[in-house]
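Hi Y.,

Following your request, here is the sequence exactly as I used it, all 386 residues.
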Amino acid sequence: MDFVPDADGVESIAKEIKLTGRSYPLFQIALLVLERPARYTIRLRVQKKPGGEVTQRLFACKLDGTAWLNEDQAVRHTLGEHFDEFYETRKTETEGPKGNFTFVAQCGVTDEYLGAPNHHDYQNRLVSFHAERLARMPFEKFKSRIRIVKEEEAINAWLEQAKWKTEYVTRKAEAEQAFAKRDEVEAHFREQHLKDAVEEVEVCEVSGENAKTMANPRTLAEFLKDQWRKQKHFPMELSTHLSKQFSRMGLQFFKKDKKVTHVSVARPNFLDVETEPVSEGVKKIMQFIDGTEECTRRQILEHLGGMEHVEPKESEEPAPAPEQTEEQKQLTSDLHWLIHQGHVLEFSNGIIETAKKPKKKPEPSAEPKVPDASLDQSASEPQKRL
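Below is the corresponding structure, written out as tokens. Let me know if you'd prefer a different format.
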């Protein structure tokens, strides 16, 4: 399986990086993507044995893109989520149950009324309800969860419910057909609509939203959640996809302190303001950044451009930025140029640094190498043998 970031989302992030010029840790972006299911998909692919046999089959619902481990799961999901697309539920009022009922059975799982135990159709109702609604639960366990309710309100609710006859009528059949039971509907669905709604696949892409909301099958849902947690801990897979997409969009990569990979508009590019022909404004910016610990854009504008210093207060909303003077606009323009040339790096936390001067590689020594004693000995062995 593979976590793939959404192309539109990546493009939006790339535009933001190009606009602001800020450098972001690649893993940080990957984690932000994982936090928003709409920004990624999970690509599932079946594995095969050396002879070509599939180790675990994979099915997809064509109607919503969900993935399932067998056909039965896919059918149950499709009928559960898209039933009204294939069948209409019709209810007709009848006379209802006759007799004297002093208590009624209630399902302990769904809270639905199952009927009065002394009603002649009660046992049939249990069997059909279990088959339609809770087939995955053992029948005896289902029976053990049944509650007996004696309240008159509950008995009347069941009587009202029981007097309605429910039928399921085909929507897409040439000749209309009606079914009284859900298992009859499922048999018809498999015969007439299965190929249009469910298919066996070797590759399936599940949206992040679908993966997050999946409850069944538990094995696949738990597997996807486990893989998501692993990516949150170390998002290498997603970061690899992001780096390829960002590269195609013209962004650059570098490692800060030789550890954390960042993505930016430009790679660090050292500028020696003492020897290079640059404007006095650019020179002042570079010198101020180098001489200021944890320098920020606002500090540059305050100290070099005369912007009013305002102490931030947590209790107050940030005030709108005042209109810049010509001097401040020039500073902003110079800073923008420096960042987009890689001479200055502005990180996601707002800290600004200058690109450091690359260390010179040590030149190879001119002294002659001392021959290795072991090599000399092995070289002289053939002479001894002669």
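Residues 81-184 form one domain.

Thanks again,
Q.
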